[in-house]
Design brief:
Number of strands of chain B: 2
Structural class of chain B: mainly alpha
Strand content of chain B: under 5%
Bound molecules: adenosine-5'-diphosphate, magnesium ion
Largest interface: A-B, 41 and 33 residues
Order of helices and strands of chain B: HHHHHEEHHHHHHH
Helix content of chain B: 55-70%
Structural class of chain A: alpha/beta
Shape of chain A: globular
Shape of chain B: flat
Number of strands of chain A: 10
Oligomer: heterodimer
Radius of gyration of chain A: 21 Å
Largest sheet of chain A: 6 strands, mixed
Strand order of the largest sheet of chain A: 6-7-8-3-9-10
Strand order of the largest sheet of chain B: 1-2
Order of helices and strands of chain A: EEEHEEHEHHHEHEEEHHHH
């Protein structure tokens, strides 16, 4: 089943007349249920705009966005989309700064916030809080305050807060950008597990190409346009494209790129240092 | 630097007081604060002090930690005490006088009572916040105000606002510390010079703080919407407040205490020493409370 479907979507910020920005133009793609997709793009390429269009925080100027077949735009004649909250509880959005997503001073209260808003009965909220905390591996912090946690832990709590709404899709908008390498790994491992064990569709937005290894498909945005849609391998073999999109190749891929530039031809996809060393060894043998 | 103010810090010990219904605690606290303005005799203050201390003991909060909350207002207390000692115009002979300053017995009595009152006024709410999480307080306020829903007062929105405000205080304090350090690292001089210079030196701290706060608010609004805020009028609550036996026990104990205090207030005739300055009392009390 198609989880997220963008059809010819364009979006313009035009509230300020002197500063009209075409943030997205004519974007089309489908993300299927259970996929783990990474969305890359430089600063200002429209990534956050895309994430907000996905749960109806923004509505497309033209084209359509559908979540499991439900349009985010209101029906003809309606002022407000009647199913907007179905969409928002289906698509959980995690932002960059975990501190700005928590509403309560005790973790369990924070996690209960979403289900409370949806009018979930009390007993079930209790179960959901327990489940969500367990899923992100933070059960023992249930009664704690979020202020004393590490960045990675806070972000996992933010994820739990969204999970409690039982979403089918999780979107992380640069949610690892502020974290140290450990925190980043913590969060991405959690997300990976959610994808594999709970079957939750993941759209991970990042400008750090190192994170791409977690997904099996990459979308690249370049100044509001979809510049690439394929596997990480394909993308890294097309290093010129990555560079023109204001993105930085991961160190290994960058080394391969520089080697190619300097006359040492390596056409295969190289995953890590070992493989690169082996490849170079093979090349040397041939000479 | 700001974190020294322990006011508003939860001190978890799991005591019966911590488990008390927050509405009961809040109501008792309100009654306590109102009542303390009527107390005039030392006996009354002793009653109050005993109540605070025994409550702290029941809550298993070390008195040292409790009195840390007084530190925040200690200068105010000293200032008001000194002003009252030297400027209070009492009856009869002055104990000591020089220029416009004079010390009377009444002045000493009044100043000491004023100091006691201020300290007790801080300790009560401090005990409440030591034993009650901000979230519980918010729930209590929401629950106590819920009859106002009938007149379409947005009780729940108010509760969410309070909850977020309390949630953000430590975060903003951290941020203030960080900005202060950053500005100091750039050579900002925050600790010397007269008061005006220092206030001016705060500007480079306040401006980024406000900018950051607004940016946070923007993101928070998106997060609230994403988490279906306002989705249905039939919102449920995770924390349901229910009065238990212990709540009634504490209510009754407080009513007894209240009766004792009221008796003490209503029968000043037994403590003639207080009757003498009762006239100027109210003017002075408010005068002093607001700084001068
Ligand atoms: N609220 C806004 N008003 C006007 N322009 C905006 C607004 N938000 C973003 N933009 C502009 O839209 C473009 C895309 O922004 P955004 O989606 O935030 O990019 P990204 O998340 O990839 O950095 C940028 O040029 C940005 O300046
Ligand atoms: Mg962004």
């Amino acid at each position: 089943m198609v989880a997220i479907s963008f059809k010819n979507v364009s979006f313009t910020y035009d509230s300020d007349e002197d500063n009209v920005v075409l943030a997205l133009s004519n974007i089309s793609f489908d993300i299927h249920e259970g996929e783990f997709v990474t969305l890359c793009g430089g600063n200002g390429s429209g990534k956050s705009t895309l994430s907000k269009l996905t749960n109806g925080l923004l509505l497309p100027d033209s084209g359509s966005v559908e979540i499991f077949g439900i349009k985010t735009t209101p029906d003809e004649g309606d002022k407000k989309n009647k199913r907007i909250y179905d969409i928002r509880s289906t698509v959980g959005l995690i932002f960059q700064n975990p501190d700005n997503q928590m509403v309560a001073s005790i973790i369990e209260d924070d996690i209960a916030f979403g289900p409370e808003n949806l009018g979930v009965p009390r007993d079930e909220i209790e179960q959901r809080v327990t489940w969500a905390l367990k899923t992100v591996g933070m059960e023992e912090y249930r009664k704690h305050t979020p202020t004393k946690l590490s960045g990675g832990q806070k972000q996992r709590i933010a994820i739990a807060g969204v999970l409690a709404m039982k979403p089918k899709v999780l979107i992380l908008d640069e949610s690892t950008a502020m974290l140290d390498p450990e925190g980043r790994e913590e969060v991405l491992e959690t997300v990976k597990r959610l994808n594999e064990e709970e079957g939750i569709t993941i759209l991970h937005i990042t400008h750090n190409m190192d994170d791409c290894v977690y997904g099996d498909r990459i979308l690249v945005l370049k100044q509001g346009k979809l510049a690439f849609d394929g596997t990480p391998q394909e993308l890294f073999l097309n290093a010129d494209l990555v560079r023109t999109c204001d993105l930085e190749l991961p160190p290994i891929q960058n080394a391969v790129y520089l080697l190619n530039q300097n006359g040492i031809k390596i056409d295969d996809y190289i995953q890590d240092e070992k493989e690169l060393a082996r490849k170079l060894w093979q090349l040397k043998q041939k000479i | 630097m700001l974190k020294d103010i322990s006011f508003g810090q939860y001190y978890p010990t799991g005591s019966i007081l911590h488990r008390l219904d927050p509405r009961v605690k809040l109501l008792i606290m309100l009654a306590y604060v109102i009542l303390i303005f009527f107390v005039k005799s030392y006996i009354g203050y002793i009653l109050f002090a005993l109540m605070v201390i025994s409550t702290a003991l029941i809550a298993r909060i070390p008195l040292k930690s409790l009195f840390r909350s007084v530190k925040a207002v200690i200068f105010l207390v000293l200032f008001i005490t000194i002003i009252n000692v030297f400027f209070y115009k009492g009856e009869g002979e002055a104990l000591w006088s020089w220029w416009k300053l004079a010390v009377y017995v009444d002045g000493l009595v009044f100043a000491s009572k004023m100091a006691l009152r201020l300290i007790l006024l801080v300790l009560g709410p401090a005990l409440l916040t030591y034993t009650t999480t901000p979230m519980e307080l918010t729930n209590a306020i929401e629950s106590l105000l819920s009859p106002l829903k009938l007149i379409k007062f947005p009780v729940h929105d108010l509760a969410v606002i309070m909850s977020i405000a309390m949630r953000m205080i430590p975060t903003l304090m951290d941020e203030t510390d960080r900005i202060t350090l950053a500005q100091k690292a750039r050579g900002a001089d925050l600790d010397t010079g007269n008061i005006f210079k220092r206030i001016k030196a705060m500007v480079p701290i306040l401006v980024p703080l406000f900018v950051c706060a607004f940016r946070r608010a923007d993101e928070l609004a998106l997060a609230l919407e994403s988490r279906c805020y306002d989705a249905t009028p039939n919102r449920t609550t995770y924390r349901v407040l229910k009065l238990k036996g212990r709540d009634f026990l504490f209510l009754i104990m407080f009513l007894v205490f209240m009766a004792a205090v009221i008796l003490d207030v209503a029968l000043p005739i037994y403590y003639p020493c207080d009757a003498t300055w009762i006239e100027g009392f109210y003017d002075n009390a408010f005068f002093s409370l607001f700084g001068l």
